[in-house]
Amino acid sequence: MNIRSQISMVFHLDKCIGCHTCSIACKNIWTDRKGAEYMWWNNVETKPGTGYPGKWEDQEIYKGGWEKDGTGIALKGAGKKKGLANIFHNPHLPVIDDYYEPFTYKYLDLIESPAGDDQPTARPISMITGEPMDIKMGPNWDDDLSGTPDYARKDPNLLKLSPAEQQAMFQLERMAFFYLPRICNHCLNPACVAACPSGAIYKRGEDGVVLINQDVCRAWRMCVTACPYKKSYYNWNSGKSEKCILCYPRIEAGYAPACMHSCVGRIRYLGVMLYDADQIERVASSDDGSLIQNHLDIIQDPFDPAVIASAKANGVADSTIHAAQYSPTYKFVKKWGLALPLHPEFRTLPMLFYVPPLLPVMASLSKVDNTAQSQKMNDIAKYWPDNWLYDTSTEELWGTLEQARFPLEYMANMFSAGKTSWVADRLKKLMAVRIHRRAVTVGDISAEKAAKVLADTGLDARTAEDIYYLTALAKFDDRFVIPAAHREQAIEMLEFTGDVKGSTGFGFKGGTAGRGA
Questions:
Q1: What is the per-residue burial (b if ≥16 Cβ within 10 Å, else e) of 120-134?
Q2: Which of 78, 332, 469, 471 could be stapled to 226 by a disulfide with Cβ–Cβ 3.0 to 4.6 Å?
Q3: Which stretch of DSSP H or E encloses residue 124?
Q4: CATH 1.10.3650.10 boundaries in the chain
Q5: pLDDT tens for residues 323-345?
Q6: Which CATH number describes the domain made up of 365-474?
Q7: What is the spatial distance between Cα 366 and Cα 218, in angstroms, rounded to a whole number?
Q8: How far apart are CA 4 and CA 246, in angstroms?
Q9: For residue range 156-204, what is the model confidence (pLDDT) as tens digits?
Q10: Helix, strand, or coil here: 57?
Q11: pLDDT: which is higher, 47 or 361
Q12: Max CA separation in the chain (angstroms)
């Protein structure tokens, strides 16, 4: 047992309102420099849709992540041999059109244009060349299903659905969408780290945050190919690769990352999880059928004395272990079983998990006639306009999962490598919590029926209340349990190695004055 600590995240997709405040907060802090205009370390996509960059989920195009190679795994499109073969031309790199050509407007034309009969306009100009351009797309061009034939219908997650199912998703009465916010997953088995020929990318030992040493980066761009989530970017001005750093200067000071701190929907949770590093190779090499379970099993119980002893032996601080014991991410992922990783089949073991969206919101809406109302009154006695009945009987509730506006297969292609049972289990728990709360607050569902629904999902009333609190009522300190930074250990390490300058990249330097001397 080799217990390490890892900062992890959970995004609750039922709560995301698609406001893009997180993206703007990150953009204003980290990617407002020349060469980074097209970068969105945090972006919010509309699903179904092709995302940013376009079709990033299709690894037949980009060759990102890992693939099974005998009993082990190998990088799909990078590595020594593949990297050498593509050293002068890498066909798997996304080009600027896959992202979008960043643009602004020539606003001075509105002010400085001479008097005339026509209304002056601000022409769009490229932020790369400075020349006038025609805008073709942007980072959220398909927002809210805009351009559905060109974007939503080309979602790679639809490929495994039958033509009839794909067609049904876009019928007007059934059409729906949800938002998918994405940042770097800070994976346990990051393909970007393994692919970098220069060794510039590394995981921090104290919290697992994946960083790029700007002094060592030589712009091979193998990290861009290797990352299946396409969250490593190339700065065309500096000639260096850049990526999300999880706002680690903020975390070290006890503050939440900017995207999480500014989240309007409060969908984001951050906390520590303890994992067994000795299991990474075995888990990443698992068969498809056991991959997700093994991924979850690598996360250890922070209250287990053996786990605590191993963590302390590896230098994990008591404050970090304490943070792991109160981690909201551990509760969502392990204790309650509500969150899943995005595309686990990429085998990077991402540490960003998602609570899948519950669509539709209603447990069930079924058409009834007047003669059937008296029979239904004994169960629920709640009727909607135009003879629509809110039916929460257990059989009807679970049956609606198969008729949801989003097919389970679609959600499973995103969050469980095609295993519909994993998604169905989490949606049932979300439904059960809602029915429990409806029984408590509205009272039109009997306590016995609510208890039966909870029991069917392995939950009880106390757990349902805990889930409800952390989902809907949690305060800042409940959503972000950030371990104390032990700066004295970092200073000792720098002094031991003789590196008194230090460098975090992006212009931040730390010398003796920066260390409080």
A1: eeeeeebebeeeebe
A2: 78
A3: strand 124-126
A4: 365-474
A5: 999 999 999 999 999 999 999 99
A6: 1.10.3650.10
A7: 61
A8: 18
A9: 999 888 888 888 888 877 788 999 999 999 999 999 999 999 999 999 9
A10: coil
A11: 47
A12: 85
Predicted confidence at residue 492, as pLDDT, reads 60
CATH 3.30.70.20 domain position(s) in the chain: 11-252
Q: Which amino acid is at 162?
A: S
Query: Does 11-252 carry CATH code 2.60.120.10?
Result: no
Distance (Å, rounded) from C-alpha 285 to C-alpha 67? Answer: 8
Can you read off the two tokens belonging to residue 505?
Answer: 């990249």
Please count the residues of the chain.
Answer: 517
Q: How far apart are CA 429 and CA 445, in angstroms?
A: 17
Amino acid code (one letter) for 160: K
Q: Check: pTM over 0.90? Answer yes or no.
A: no
Q: Which residues contact 339 (CB under 8 A, 6 or more apart)?
A: 10, 329, 332, 333, 353, 354, 355, 426
Q: Who's near 153: CB < 8 A, 6+ residues apart? A: 48, 166, 170
Strand 340-341 to 352-355 pairing: antiparallel
Tell which wins on pLDDT, 87 or 62. 62
Answer whether residue 98 shows pLDDT above 90.
Answer: yes
- The pLDDT value recorded for residue 264 is 95
